[in-house]
Amino acid sequence: MHSFGYRANALLTFAVTILALMCAMASFSDNFNHPSPSSSVQVLNVNWFQKQPNGNDEVSLTLNISADLQSLFTWNTKQVFVFLAAEYETSKNSLNQISLWDGIIASKEHAKFWTHTSNKYRFIDQGSNLRGKEFNLTLHWHVMPKTGKMFADKLVMSGYRLPKEYR
Amino acid sequence: GREIPIVHRVIKVHERQDTGEVDVLTKGDNNYGDDRLLYAHGQLWLQRHHIMGRAVGFLPYVGWVTIIMTEKPIIKYILIGALGLLVITSKD
Predict the structure, then answer these.
(1) What ipTM does the predicted assembly reach?
(2) pTM, full prediction
(3) Contact B34 A121 (CB under 8 A)
(4) Residue A5 sits at the chain B interface (C-beta within 8 Å)
C-alpha cells in the first residue's frame, strides 16, 4: 500500500490532473478578453476577368488589406490565423465563400498590418455568374491558444461589385 | 498503412440553394497548394459526409503519448507490463 509503485502512480495521476486543471483555467481566462478588431479592404484593380474553357468564371484582383487585430492577443495566444473570403450568392448556390488571401500572425506586434497583394488563391465560380456580381469581403480570424479553446470571429465588409463585362 | 484523420482548413465553400448540400475545398496551412492532390482520383470537392469534425481547441503535447506508442511500440509493452506488475504485487 505504500510501495514505490503505488506512490509513483498516485503522484503521476495527481500531476496530470493538476496540469489539466491549469490548462482549463488558462483557457477560461481568455473569456475575459473583449477584442475590438478593425479592418478595411480596397479592391485596387481588377487585373483580369475571364470565362475559363470549362465554363467557370475566374477573376484576378489586386487588393489592399489593412487591419488592426492587436486586441485579439492574450497571454494565452499562440498565433492568429487570418483570412479574407469573398462571399456572394448565385441562383444555383445560396452561399459561396472563396478564400482569397490568408496569413499567420505570430505576435501582437505584427497584428497591426497592411498588405498590397493580388489574390493568393484563385477566385473561381461554379458556373458563369460573376459579371456585375455584388459580393462581401469578410475578414475571418482564428485565435489559436497556447492551450485550450480556439476563438473564431469575423468582420463583414460589404458593397463590392465585379465589372459587368469580362476584361 | 491505415486511414488517419487530417486537420486542414476550409478555403472554398459552395452551398446549393435547393438542397443545402455543400462543396468544400481544403488546404493545409503549411502547404503551398490545396488538397486536391490528396483527394480521391477525379474528386474535386468534399461533401459533409467526408468531414468528421471540427477543431475547437488545443491540448499541447498530449498527442506525443499516441505518437511514441505508435513509433516505439516497446514503450506500450513496458507500460502495460509495469501496470500489470503493480496489479499483481498489490496486497489487497
Answers:
(1) 0.82
(2) 0.85
(3) yes
(4) yes
